Amino acid sequence: MKKTIVIILALTGLAFAGLRLAAFLADNRATDPADMVERYADADGKAFYRINAGINNSYLIPCRGGWLLVDTGYPDDYGRFKKALSVTGISPGSIKWLFITHAHDEHAGFAAALRRDSGCRLIVPEQSLRDLRAGQMVWNGRAVNWRIDIISRLYGLVKRRDMRFPPVQPNRDDVILVKDDRRPLERIGIRGTLVYTPGHSPDSWSLVTDDGRAFCGDAAMNFLNILGAAYRPIFITDKRQAYGSLRRLLSLGAGEFYTGHGPAFGKERIEEVLTRFGGDALNHTGTGR
What we know:
The chain is of the alpha/beta class.
């Protein structure tokens, strides 16, 4: 009996160690900073970048006087982000603006540290203010299927994720998003619209450029498709809003989707999502306010 218990405990320990290793590898897929950076070009040939310093993507878009960063990563991704940033030749001080698409810990995790080092100003949703100021992600969404539910629970267990991050304190110089708006981007030399895209979370926003690039946080994903995610958010608070927001992005001319998780992909994937799953959103625009 004792031998059986020892064997069970040993196997449990090995399984837990394996899960911890899998979670670490998920968060740190690349070890070379150069492998964390992907360079793109916009319609005018100007470079912009994806930095994947962990499980989450950040995007650098050129703006007047420097760069706009879309989203951060977990708090402990900051060191890796800075190493990857050095590969692009961009200094932290050149990041003039940070757009946080929603107040989840892997999107706002090192925002306070970046703001301290760069002095950047914020573009944040009004709906995110409470959680940003508290440094606490509040979550009531559900996984899109049972397979993702199981794997996400295991990930949270082995990572010991508490959904906390250093608080972010917006001030009068920052931009607080209340309704769809072009003006904040026009001020910094970016042609595009900041648009409310709820569904993954009630505070989710996206940036859609006039040349068809949608930087949409977790409104769509290229992540865990092998488990049936099918380019949808793997967690959804409101299914009707989630699919309505995808329709809204297409209506604004989004042709390429740059999401918080996974490589970029074309609008054809979103059209497939809406054909397969989006019937409930046919009459919903996702514009919210």
